[in-house]
Amino acid sequence: MRRIGTLDTSDQARKLLGYLQSESIDAMIDPVDDSLNRDSNQGDSKDGSQKNSALQNPGLQNSGPQNSGPWNLWVRDEVDVDEAKSAYKDFLESPESPKFDVPLADLPSRSNPGLARARQADRRQEKDRVKSARRRAASRDLNQLDMPVGDVARQQSIPVVIGIIIISVVMSLSTNFSKPRANRLGTETLEQKIYRATSFVDRDLYRSEGGDSFASVRKGEVWRFVTPMFLHGDEFHLAFNMLWIFFLGSVIEKLHGSLFFAVLVTLTQLGGMALQVGLPAEDWVPQSLHGSPFVVGASGAVYGLFGFLLVRPWVDGDYPINLVPINVVLMFVMLFAGILEFVPNVANGAHLGGLIAGLVLGAIPFFGKLAASKRSSHSFSGD
C-alpha cells in the first residue's frame, strides 16, 4: 500500500476518495493522528481494528473534531500510484472542479465490489496494452528515416547527428577520401595538412618514433582518438557510415538529448580507436584483428550506438526503444564478416571496441537514465 499524500479535512479526503474509486482505483483514507498512533502501537489489536474500520468505512469519519484533518490518502495497488498522484495534484490545484463531485454512496465499488475488481483488471490490461503498443511503435520507428519517438522524446531536433554528417562529408572531401594529393612544388597541400592533423598519428612522427602508434597522443593531441571518425576511405564508406549514424543516432539524440548523445558518441569512438590501435600484431592474434593506427571511419561509433541500444532494454524494462531483429542480425553479420575476412580491409578492432564500449555504457543503470515525467511541486510520500 502506498501513501499518496495528505488533505486538510475529511470532506476533502472523502471527495477525492470518491473520485478515485469512481475511476476503479482502490483507495482509502484515514486521519493522520490515527495513522501515527497505529504506527507506534502495531501490537494493539484494538488500534488495528480501528484502522480497518477507518480505512474500509471512510464515511464513519465525517464529523466532530476529526473533520479538521489532516487526513492520509492511500492507494492499495502499485499500478494505480501514478494515476492517483496525478489526480491528487489536480485536486490540490482545483478542488472545486466538477470532475471531483462523485458521491461515495453512488460508487459502483461500494455497491458492487465484483464489478469494481473487474474494472480494475480491465484498466491494468489497458495500461499493459498501451505500453506494449508504444514499444512496438518505437521499434517500427527505427525502420523509418525520421524515427519519431513520440511523447517520450526529450527533443525533436538532432543537431549533433547533423553536425557529424556535415563534418564527415566536408573532411572526407577535403582530404580526397583520406588520400591527400601532393603538388608539383613539393610543398604540403591543404589536403595533406588536414589529414596530418586529424588522422590518429602523424606519419612522419610515427616513423621517427620507431613505429609508435600513440606518438601523437603522447604529445597531448588527444583529439586524435575522435577525429578519424570524420575521415572516410571512399564515397560508399562515407554514405554507409552516415546512414547508420543517422539511423541509430537520431533516435538516441531525440530520446536522451544532444549532450548525452555527444558524450556517448565520443566515448564509443574512443573505445573503438583504443582497441583498434592497441591490439598487438602477434601470431596468436588473427590477422584481421591486428592493430593499426592508420584507420578512418565512424564505424566504431556506429557499433557503439548499436551496442547501447541493444543492451539498454535489458537494463531498463521501460526503455521505449527495441531494435528490429533483422537490424541486429545485419550488424552482427557485418561484424563477423570482417573478422573472418570475408570482407577485406576492415577496421575490425574499431568495430569490436566500439561495440564493447556501447554495451558497457548501456549496461550502467544510471548512465542515460531517462528523466521521469514532470512532477508536481507538492511532495508525495510513499511506503
TrEMBL record:
Query: Care to name a GO molecular-function term for this sequence?
Result: serine-type endopeptidase activity
**What's the Enzyme Commission number for this chain?**
3.4.21.105
Give the transmembrane ranges.
157-177, 236-252, 259-279, 291-311, 323-343, 349-368
A GO CC annotation recorded here is: membrane
Annotated spans, Disordered: 30-72, 99-139
Q: Which residues form the Peptidase S54 rhomboid domain?
A: 220-364
Protein's GO biological process: proteolysis
Compositional bias (Polar residues): 50-70
Task: State what protein this is by name.
Answer: Rhomboid protease GlpG
Organism expressing this protein natively:
Rubripirellula obstinata
